[in-house]
Amino acid sequence: MANGGNAVACRSKSVVAKHSAPHAKRAACYRHPSSCQANASQQDPLFFTKTSHHQSSAPLELTSFENMRALLKIIALSFLCKYSNGFAPSRNYQIIQSQRNPAPLREQNSIIKNKAQKSNDEETNKTNKKPLGNQLRRSFLISASLALTTNLGLAVAAPPGFKRIPTQFIAAIADPKASSGSDANEWGVWTVDPGPRGVFLRDYKKDIQGRNNKAPVGWQFDPSDWWVEEHGLIMEAPSFPLEKGRYLVTGGRLVTTVLEIGEGGKWSLEKGELFDVTHLPCRSARYTPQGGVGSGSPLTAKESDFPVKPGAEMPKVDGCDKVDYAVLFVIGKEA
Description:
The protein is an alpha+beta fold and 335 residues long. It has helices at residues 2-31, 33-37, 40-43, 64-83, 89-100, 102-157, 204-207, and strands spanning 47-51, 57-61, 162-172, 180-181, 188-190, 199-200, 226-229, 233-235, 245-250, 256-261, 267-269, 284-289, 320-334.
């Protein structure tokens, strides 16, 4: 056992000496660098010296593994500098957080996306609501502008014996190509614009039915005979029949002429046809329930059918008969 212990001790010493020899030689070079520098490359290919601008040298020891790791770091840094989108702390923080725990970021993105979708939906609803209001205002402005323009023209070139009057609106039913007829007994007149005084179909239950069939401005609604205009507004009925006389009428386009209403419902235009003096943007229809009150009403009308295009037919309403009327502007009357 003693001899075996001595053998082990000798082998241990030889191993230690073998591994400590290079370190000792390098340590000597640290103490006397000038003596080792000349033959350093021949004695140890992995041993290099680093000389500063002060002519002092300091050794740098690198292994093959360290060389490879340093090279990989340089490649990684070059790639990062070339392809990185930025180094903003907030952006990098979000990227790092998403890599560490992507679930919260996905939830946050989902919340942001839902808010954006909700905002878009609200904006779409606002956008869908705007056209009807814009069309109403535009329709009223156009009507008023046309009437004003025509009245100014009438003041300059009014037929003898005619006087100007506030614009009135005739509801006429006849062949658009006719210039005379005998059905004026079925014509009525609104002495004021019925549009601004109307009630939207969607508000029928609240503003008419819930008020004992009386509109907020005071006119009476008749469930057995009711009127709707092109924007889906329930209107008061015109006054029937149109009185006899001579009226200066126009459709707000090229023709302004005299309409004469005579005995027995006879009517005639001095020039042009009924279509020429019809104001196309204004549409109106008269609805009567087919089976009496309750079989058809504003509740069975479809709001999606409105507004109606200029010159187009008014929509049908389930359970009701419909009659379309042309609208003529009255801007003067024989004195």
